[in-house]
Amino acid sequence: xxLTKIAPLNNMDPEKLISGVKILARAVGExxxxxxRELRKRDIEMKGxxxxxxxxxxxxxxxxxxxxxxxxxxxxxxxxxxxVENEIKAYTWIIDPLDGTTNFVHGDTPxxxxxxxxxxxxxxxxxxxDPMPDQMYYATARGRAFLNDxxxxxxxQSALENAYIGFGIPYSLDDKGEEILRNAMKQFRRCSFRIKxxxxxxxxxxxxxxxxxxxxxxxxxxxxxxGTFILQCAGGxxxxxxxxxxxxxxxxxxxxxxxxxxxxxxxxxxGN
Length: 272
Fold this sequence. Notes:
The chain is an alpha/beta fold. It has 2 domains: about 1-150, Fructose-1,6-Bisphosphatase, Chain A, domain 1, CATH 3.30.540; about 165-270, D-Maltodextrin-Binding Protein, domain 2 (3-Layer(aba) Sandwich), CATH 3.40.190.80. Helix content is about 35%, strand content about 30%. It has 7 helices and 16 strands. It has helices spanning about 15-40, 55-70, 100-105, 175-185, 200-205, 220-235, 260-270; strands at about 1-5, 45-50, 50-55, 75-80, 85-90, 90-100, 110-120, 120-130, 135-140, 145, 150, 165, 190-195, 215, 235-240, 250-255. It has a 7-stranded mixed sheet, with helices on both faces. Helix 1 runs antiparallel to helix 2 (about 55-70) and helix 5 runs parallel beside helix 6. The protein is globular. The protein starts with a strand and ends with a helix.
């Protein structure tokens, strides 16, 4: 990755920019929806065990990059498929053209388009689009988080008992990840656990009050940058497994409605 410093784009307004980002996300989402019907198994490549990529991922990313360059020509990019040189600038797009590729290649859902804009080290805009139900999650500031123009509302679940919990299993499971899964298994009789397969969307489900919390390790910035910003703007909480804020680049995430966060940390992440 190349680190480049440029002068701030003082005239950039997230509120004005977001409409263009939403239009682009929907266009790429429509492309994904159409292409899933035509996808053939021989078009699928393996990046690793359970880690798929297709020509569709790459083409979707190219379309995102092309459109975002028009919206903000001076910005850099962090991308999953590396169709453009990864370069951090004063403003940087962090994008995943197809979050939930495993679901996608098996003809399943959900999958999503995830777009975040980072200013220096701070996310200032997030869009996550689910093309199948046509659901657009987006945010530009605290209190400015929406699903299809309706304000997002967190759940009020305050205890692990009867909680509805999303989680994911990384492609490479380390000792800490295995320990967390064992801790979670001890809670299976107390609450409901679900794996949906798209980290970006599962974080947004917490923001929308569908889920109470979500945890995952082995994540990349493009998996979480947009979703965690949307959740925080909706009033939720995000930390890494140590309770700190290194969840975008630190590969660990606990996302919650806030009120259940401490119990999740104690019972599942730490296993106390």
